[in-house]
## 1
Amino acid sequence: MVELKVKVGEKGQILIPKVFRDRYGIVEGEKVSIEPTSEGILIRGKPSPEEIMKRLEEHVEKIRRMRVSSPKLGDLSKAYLEMEFEENTG
């Protein structure tokens, strides 16, 4: 892996070398992700379609694990109204 040194500007800005911008699809005006890691700062360009699918699958799996088998709020209010109706007509 190539390691290049860049200078930090007055406002904390850095210039990402063209070789890295080209390789990772970073173009002017686009946003990048910046993540802290144990080794320093990780800057990511736009994700590939494969990376997007992987992240979506991870989110879907998290949602599946969070499913709860208890009744929904609407189900409880329906049961309550039905019981009240039976008590008043019975």
## 2
Amino acid sequence: MNSTFQLGQISVIVINDFFEKILTVDSNIIIIRWSPIIIMVKKLLLLLLLLLLLLLLLLSFLYYYYEIICFCFEFISLKKS
């Protein structure tokens, strides 16, 4: 995803790709390419956050269903005895 913005008479273009960071000034245009390490770290952090949220959601559902399952087993065991 590329983004372009103006700084007075200078255009700044930020290119998100897998090249090393290059700062080029050519006829009032600045091109910034992000390094792959920054891109990988951002993606890994987002993935980690997503996995953490999914784990939290799973644990909350398991806790809720654990209470229901325990209640059902207690009810069945009380009926048998």
